[in-house]
Amino acid sequence: MKQSPRVLGRPRHDENAKPKKDIVLETATRLFIKEGYKNISMADVAKACNVTKATIYYYYPTKGDLYTSALLAMMDQIKLSILQILEESISFKDRLEKLVEIHLSATVDIDMKNFMREATINLSEFQLKEVQASENNMYKTIEHAMQLEMELGTIRKGNATFFAHSFLALMSVGYVKDREGKRIFQSEATAAKEIIDFFWKSVEK
């Protein structure tokens, strides 16, 4: 039986292997985290994946598409982690503290501010809107939790959007370093406790 011709440029697929598109995205994300957008080329990604540049371009027509997908994947993972923690059966304050600690630990090598700055500079208007929408969805997850806890009487009544953004702004303090390049908190656990103790004073009833 004659085999159907393979679509030009389409990578060979092993049914038992991890999808090549996923491997490309995961590899590119690691490279972007380590080196930044400008310092990584599609050829670098192809080399790290041990595939041809044609394979990379088959899945991601431009570096902007690849960078956008990397950002969206990271934000989706962060959102999923946030939801899982917020649904745990412990106090809201403990959930927030756990969320901060896990988030800081998981993103210790990721400079999200720099990721977003590079996105603003290098992505198209459409790609940037996709990233911003995903970022807003992360914020909405926290905002909805704040609103629910207000209704349950756990925290005082107020503006849930303000509470959520204040919480996220405080969480970013966990990344702050002194003049010698050392973080101001000795550990993520210490940072989480200090941040939530400070935040809780502003929202407790």
TrEMBL record:
Provenance organism: Lysinibacillus zambalensis
PROSITE patterns found in the cross-reference section: HTH_TETR_2
Pfam short name (any one): TetR_N
Protein's name according to its UniProt entry: TetR/AcrR family transcriptional regulator
InterPro entries, sorted: Homeodomain-like_sf, HTH-type_Tx_Regulator, HTH_TetR
Gene3D superfamilies: Homeodomain-like (1.10.10.60), Tetracycline Repressor, domain 2 (1.10.357.10)
DNA-binding region ranges: 41-60
Keywords for the protein's UniProt record, in alphabetical order: DNA-binding, Repressor
Domain HTH tetR-type: 18-78
